[in-house]
Amino acid sequence: MIINIFQVESLSHLYYKIMKIISVVGARPNFMKIAPVHRAIHKYNTLHSSLFIHHLICHTGQHYDSNMSDQFFNDLELPSPDYYLGVGSGTHAVQTAKIMVEFEKVLNAENPDLVIIVGDVNSTIACSLTAVKMGIKVAHVEAGLRSFDRTMPEEINRILTDSISDFLFVTEKSGLDNLKREGVPDNKVFFVGNCMIDSLIHYLPKAETSNVINNFLLLPFDFILVTLHRPSNVDDPYRLKEILEFLCSLSNDQKVIFPVHPRTRNIMEANQLQITDPSSLILTEPLGYIEFLSLMKNASLVITDSGGIQEETTYLQIPCVTLRSSTERPVTIDVGTNYLVGEDLDQADRIVTEILSGKSRKGQIPKLWDGKAAERIVSILVEKFKKN
Ligand code: UD1
């Protein structure tokens, strides 16, 4: 389904130049990266009169449940998408191909100057590939991250997207090193900071007014927050069962709250994996952005396999135990609060015990994670556009 709600032509007599940008969102971790870009574009338009940036948002529909999508548009004050492609779930090939077919129609209809894609999900590679083949410039926000684990679908998406993008916006130094090693010319690469952290900084005051902790009968810094959705942890029911048993054992000491991703929920249901004491190990539906931020900020520690949460906990200086054997975000370990424990749950248990006994490292906030990444991105794009 395609809905075009705005015609740029009506503006053409008001401005000297118009730059049309389509930003793509598809899956939950994309929304908080595009929201600050949208805000920065709005700010640019309010402060400048010689160039107007016409910003359209295209939602591929990779994530479609209300609590994985709509809720984030509300929490992040994003306008309804101009285009909704409604592709839904499917195998990698089906999902990627459907997005490409539908996105090509959008590009044909709009002929934008630039497409902005973020992160590493299937929507990212599908839309960048479609745009580049149509001769449309592509900006990749969160470029250069590498886990060096090619069994992760996201790693393939990152490598491919970076190799065809025109502007690569990098969040941490490892990204600069990776892109240099891969032969990406320096003039395409910009170290701008982290848009996900822009959102966090912007919405922290709102998260502080949230009642979510009281609603779940939790006490500040007296609970563990968990998220798990990586195929390596949840697709094998035996592995998932082992992890749930580990979480149950932790919940004897501190309450554990676990908002369950649909992928994880499906596997739990299909294999009848149930929790014995739901008042100590609390399973909930996925939560909105503001509620989740509030939980993260008040947790004694977070256990996760997410990418973004490693960064958010680093910024918040909350210890994070990552159940993965690699991370594409090494700054969260080198300077942040992240502990990579691999698949070894005994090691995870030891680190959790250490953290709960007060021995965790405090960490520092990485360079340029200051809430201004999106503004830097917009100024760079404007400058480049004006030169063309
Ligand atoms: C995707 C991204 C992953 C990101 C994650 C965040 C890829 C390859 N993976 O993984 O990088 O960390 O999003 O959540 O792009 N489902 C629903 N409702 C939804 C969405 C999904 O029920 O709104 C279920 C479907 O059964 C689907 C499964 O979850 O098959 C997995 O969804 P999918 O988008 O394929 O991948 P994620 O695991 O969410």
How would you portray this structure in words?
The protein has helices at residues 28-47, 70-75, 92-110, 122-133, 153-164, 173-181, 195-207, 212-215, 231-234, 237-250, 262-270, 289-298, 308-316, 331-334, 345-356, 373-387, and strands at 17-25, 51-59, 83-84, 114-118, 137-143, 167-170, 189-191, 223-227, 255-259, 281-284, 301-304, 320-322, 338-340. The model is unreliable at 1-6 (pLDDT under 50). Helix 1 (28-47) packs across helix 7, helix 3 crosses helix 4 (122-133) and helix 4 (122-133) packs parallel to helix 5 (153-164). The strands form two sheets. A seven-stranded parallel beta sheet has the order 3-2-1-4-5-6-7, sandwiched between helices. A six-stranded parallel beta sheet has the order 10-9-8-11-12-13, sandwiched between helices. The chain has 388 residues and is α/β, with parallel strands linked by helices. The site of uridine-diphosphate-N-acetylglucosamine has 19 residues, from helix 1, helix 5 and helix 11.
